[in-house]
Amino acid sequence: MLRRLGDVFGPTVNIASRLTSLGRAGDVRVDENTAAALGDNPRFQLDEQPPQDVGGYDRLRSWRLRRVDSDMPG
User: Fold this and answer.
1) 72 in a structural domain
2) What is the pLDDT of residue 27?
3) Is 29 helix (H, G, I), strand (E, B) or coil?
4) Position 73 in a domain
5) What is the DSSP-derived secondary structure letter of residue 42?
6) Of 4, 14, 30, 54, whose CA is between 20 and 30 Å from 70?
7) What is the pLDDT of residue 70?
8) Which pTM value belongs to this model?
9) Distance in angstroms (rounded) separating the CA atoms of residues 50 and 33
10) How do residues 29-69 score in pLDDT, each as one tens digit?
11) Residue 74 maps to a domain
């Protein structure tokens, strides 16, 4: 990541930008590295989404992230 004059550039920023275009309003999408880091955390549910072609990335993999509400039954 590169910072210049208050802006940030680089692959991390590009992927984050592409992920925001994939979800619906209220969705949280994460990349492969973030999904792997959260994979064993029981507070979150990760649902892998079909890979999609987006600007600069062929078959970008993403996961929808949801918080598990421990107060809900079942």
Assistant:
1) no
2) 92
3) strand
4) no
5) T
6) 30
7) 67
8) 0.76
9) 16
10) 999 999 999 989 999 999 999 999 998 889 999 999 999 98
11) no
